[in-house]
Amino acid sequence: MRSLLAILAISSILFSCGSSNSEEKSTTKTQPWSLEFNSLRKSEADCTGDTCTYIELSIPVLSGGSVDARSRINEYVDATFREALKSRLPEPNSMAPFPDLAESFLEGYKLFNMEFPESDAAWYLELKGDSSILTDEYFTAIVKDNDFMGGAHPNSYTTIQSFDLEDGKRIDILSRYDSASVYQMAEAEFRTIHQIPDSIGLNDAGMMFENGNFALPENMGLSPNGLLLYYNSYEVASYATGPTKIHIPYSKLESVNQDLANH
Fold this sequence. Notes:
Blueprint: H1 2-27, E1 34-43, E2 54-63, H2 67-86, H3 98-115, E3 124-128, E4 133-134, E5 138-148, E6 155-164, H4 173-176, H5 179-194, E7 219-222, E8 226-231, E9 244-249, H6 250-262
């Protein structure tokens, strides 16, 4: 009888442990990727004019997927926003919570006005990642940075970087596609956008490429229909020219890859 009770007790314990392990596995199952935006806007409390100094943030945050991949991507985005804020703050403490950093930006404007009371132009800073792209295979962080903090004109800068959702690592665009073809297609599109014929050198047409040789932009990423290439103002042209956005369809790149594979 005692032996039977012991067997039943052991069986109960084993069943309980098995159920616990099953429940733990089910709760740790990888969830689908999703994208949300943490939005924040702060402006002067005592503004009386039509235009107030303000700061507006829209921070993309991924959830789901593997912990390692998600952490890598979210850490990159967080660091990008903090680095962009750091240079605009009176005290470069970029590790504070974002609401505190926003208040610090407004405080910087007050300090500036105290030192230069004749300058009454309002400031603004917009850091927005709401154009970022999430697909089943990759995430492309697109962060648009627009500001005016005095000076002759507003400033803008766009950062683009794609990540593989398998491991959260940055995607090297030129390792995925034939680099020579990307250069060729990008230059052809650049010349089309700026109406520069092949017979004229890029710098002769007013561009600012090093030694007059075409170069790909610093910011490139994947989009649903093709490669996205973005030249910021001053990168290869004057401020008056503005930024240049180039789109290279995957269909063209895949056609080139097939031709190379057949040779």
